[in-house]
Amino acid sequence: MSLPKVDKIWMNGELVDWDDANVHVLTHGLHYGSGVFEGIRAYKTPKGTAVFRLTEHMKRLHRSGKIYAMDIPYTVDELVEATKLTIRENKVDSCYIRPLAYRGYSEMGLFPQRVPVDVVVAVWPWGTYLGEDGIKHGVRVRISSFRRHEANAAPPAAKASGHYLNSILAKQEVLASGYDEAILLNSEGYVTDGSGENVFVVRDGVITTPPTSSGALEGITRDSVMKMAKDLGYEVREADLVRSDLYLADELFFTGTAAEIVPIREIDDRLVGEPGPVTRKIQDIFFATVHGEDDRYASWLEHV
Ligand code: PPE
């Protein structure tokens, strides 16, 4: 997927031309993955463009930085304003938003505390990550042979650039065999999440998702879906799941900012089937919310 260009990227407090938003090849983050990032979406609503849970995402960016003892030189509020400015300036009414804070250029080596932290916020129009057909009919998923990195190796609670090498291994592996997405188990064999999505299981009307202690990211879509599902009257649990819990599910779906709400129609060559009623209800309420057509969660929309 090539990047659709817009005009400007916010870089360390200034809007610079898209083509000038470059870094030196000796940037620390490029060598060691020493960065933390976010993925956020803005949607067109009847009241103008709104960013879904923008403040929550910027808080998570700060939490990711804290885990790596990396002070982000802009407050959550400043990053919120920078994002709104970048969206307005580029005149996009819906877009994906990628804030990134990374160790910049000054020194090499594994003690980065003196290396400055650079911050960028880029936006671009980006269709749903796993495709429109995936949203409608579901995706084919395989459990990767690569395990999720554990909390005492690289804490999955940090959405850190270097961590995504693990997801890349998993995704490359399953795409090479013709599947659409990977799910990773942790070293104990419990389900964590997808390469870039949280996972939910529906069985006998009960909705379950792995706890963050499994190694699953504390997803903001995950949190939103848990709240919505409870409000719809479903019992929602956070519990450890093994792979056969996926095989025996009535319904399975992914949640994530880039992917949105994606049904899983096949897992390890076992049929789950066309998206079921619970998944459909969650999709309906989620898409209505982000498009400003359902006022119940209007406080999650931050207008630009
Ligand atoms: N797990 C992982 C590993 C993950 O990367 C994401 C987001 C999620 C769960 C869902 O979290 P949330 O977006 O807060 O609901 N992945 C981001 C980056 C994806 C990418 O491939 O790049 C995203 O969806 O923006």
Task: Please tell me about this protein's structure.
The chain has 304 residues and is α+β, with helices and mostly antiparallel strands. The protein has two domains: 8-124, D-amino Acid Aminotransferase, Chain A, domain 1, CATH 3.30.470; 132-295, D-amino Acid Aminotransferase, subunit A, domain 2 (D-amino Acid Aminotransferase, Chain A, domain 2, Alpha-Beta Barrel). It is built from eight helices and 17 strands. Strand 14 (251-256) and strand 15 form a beta hairpin. Helix 2 crosses helix 3 (76-90). The two termini are 27 Å apart. The structure holds ligand PPE. The site of ligand PPE has 16 residues, from helix 6 and strand 14. Ligand PPE binds at residues 39, 167, 193, 196-198, 217, 219-222, 255-259.
Q: What structural class do helix, strand and pairing data support?
A: alpha+beta
Q: How many structural domains does the protein architecture include?
A: 2
Largest sheet: 9 strands, mixed
Rounded mean pLDDT is 97
CATH architecture heading of the largest domain? Alpha-Beta Barrel
Q: Give the CA-CA distance, first to last residue.
A: 27 Å
Amount of helix: 25-40%
- List SSEs in N-to-C order: EEHEEEHHEEHEHEEEEHEHEEEHE
Beta content comes to 25-35%
By CATH, the topology of the largest domain is D-amino Acid Aminotransferase, Chain A, domain 2
Map the helices and strands:
Blueprint: E1 8-11, E2 14-17, H1 28-32, E3 35-37, E4 40-45, E5 48-52, H2 54-67, H3 76-90, E6 95-103, E7 117-124, H4 132-137, E8 139-143, H5 164-176, E9 181-185, E10 191-194, E11 198-203, E12 206-209, H6 220-231, E13 235-238, H7 243-247, E14 251-256, E15 260-267, E16 270-271, H8 277-290, E17 301-303
Parallel strand pairs: 8-9, 8-15, 12-13
Antiparallel strand pairs: 1-2, 1-7, 3-6, 4-5, 4-6, 5-17, 6-7, 9-10, 11-12, 11-14, 14-15, 15-16
The chain binds ligand PPE.
